[in-house]
Amino acid sequence: MSFADRPPHKAAANWQVQGLMLIATFLVATSFPVVAAITDSVDSSVLTFLRFALATVLFAPLVAWRYGLGRPGLYDLMRYGVLSFLLVTFFWCMFASLRLTSPLNTAAIFSLSPVITAGIAAVLLRDRIGLSARIALPIGAAGAIWVVFRGDLAAMMAVRIGASDLLFFGGTIAFAVYSTLVKVLHRGEPLARMTFWILATGTVWLFLLSVPDLSRVAWTEIPATTFAGIAYLSAFTTIVTFFLFQWGTTQIGPTRVTSYTFLNPVLVLFIGLAFGDALPPVAIWPGIGLAISATIVLQLNGVHKGLKEKPISGAPAPQGRA
After folding, report:
1. Whole-angstrom Cα distance, residue 211 to residue 231?
2. Calpha distance 230→322 (Å, rounded)
3. Which of 5-9, 162-166, 261-265 has the lowest mean pLDDT?
4. Residue 225 to residues 30, 135, 138, 168, 228, Cα–Cα distance (Å)
5. CA 56, CA 73: separation in Å to the nearest integer?
6. Max Cα separation, the chain?
7. Are 53 and 203 in contact (CB under 8 A)?
8. Residue 10: CA count within 13 A, CB half-sphere
9. Measured between alpha carbons, how far is 308 from 84 in angstroms, rounded to an integer?
10. Which end of the chain has fewer CB atoms at under 10 Å, N or C?
């Protein structure tokens, strides 16, 4: 039985979960320079639609061969539709807010997502969060924000919260609800199949959202590098990361999975170093230390203090290969 087939009540080894979550987080971090490189070529809503649509097409044959796509009933479509609606809401709020606010503001707000997820998980999953986790969550958020602003206190103090920032904060809440509901709405089907239907229903939402912009796209003028970037985003930072994060949520719970968000600004820095960027200033390193330390504490907290969320009871075992 591979890790992908393992039902939630048969938890994977902790090292396996943590390793896969690190891989997924690294892939997410690589998406930032890729999006930055291609975002000027295609409207953001169209870009996201193409990303979801291609991911759905690429993932369909694998899921069909391994598990069968199945014929989801109305209730199942509602489950998948709710989850994908939350994801699309997050992406729409992000792109809409970036028209009026700065990337620094959105990055700082998104650093709060593990804290928000912990609060939502406490309500929906009755997740018990110990003292060390309650301390580590705000410290991790502070460390990530410190890295985002490159240790510049003046820049942090100069931030002004506007309507666009509140819009993205709403999108961040939608993302946190999605992260928690993955566990609540999983009904024992193979997670690869669940991921496929979330992508498919998300593609429908995004098509409806991008219809006004699709007719204005000059497809023949889009450079080949943009299509290559969309293909990378679809295969690695959509299919792989969505699936791994959903699987991780069923294994260690949404709070510990989203705590890896603290590492995103850190990993973006390290990826930049690999491509020849200069070493970050000394002022950034305390924030890097706080973000990494908080993530480690949150993972150890779940392992040693018995705070891992309980798997959903009564869910049927996943089906085998079709």
Report:
1. 21
2. 30
3. 5-9
4. 16, 44, 39, 29, 5
5. 19
6. 58
7. yes
8. 11
9. 25
10. N
- Retrieve residue 262's tokens: 């603290």
pLDDT given for residue 302 in this prediction = 57
Q: What is the DSSP string of 143-163?
A: HHHHHHTTT-HHHHHT----H
- Whole-model pTM? 0.80
pLDDT tens-digit readout, 34-79: 877 787 778 878 888 999 999 999 999 999 998 888 888 899 999 9
Q: Residue 34: which of 226, 284, 303 has the closest Cα?
A: 226
Q: pLDDT confidence of 309, banded at 50, 70, 90?
A: very low
Long-range contacts of 74-78 (CB under 8 A, 24+ apart): 76/187, 76/197, 77/197, 77/201
- Res 4: pLDDT: 53
Token pair listed for 168 = 């993205």
Sole residue written with tokens 């961040």:
172
| Residue 244: Cβ-neighbour burial (10 angstroms; 0-12, 13-18, 19+) | buried
Residue 133 in tokens:
């986790």
Q: What is the Cα Rg of the chain in Å?
A: 19
User: Is the per-residue pLDDT at 201 higher than 80?
Assistant: yes
Q: Where are the domains of the chain?
A: 3-304
Q: Which two tokens stand for residue 2?
A: 């591979």
Report the candidate in 106, 70, 258, 240 with the shortest Cα–Cα distance to residue 182: 258
Cα-Cα end-to-end distance for the chain? 15
pLDDT at residue 2, as a whole number: 52
- E-assigned strands of the chain? none
The residue behind tokens 């679809």 is 234
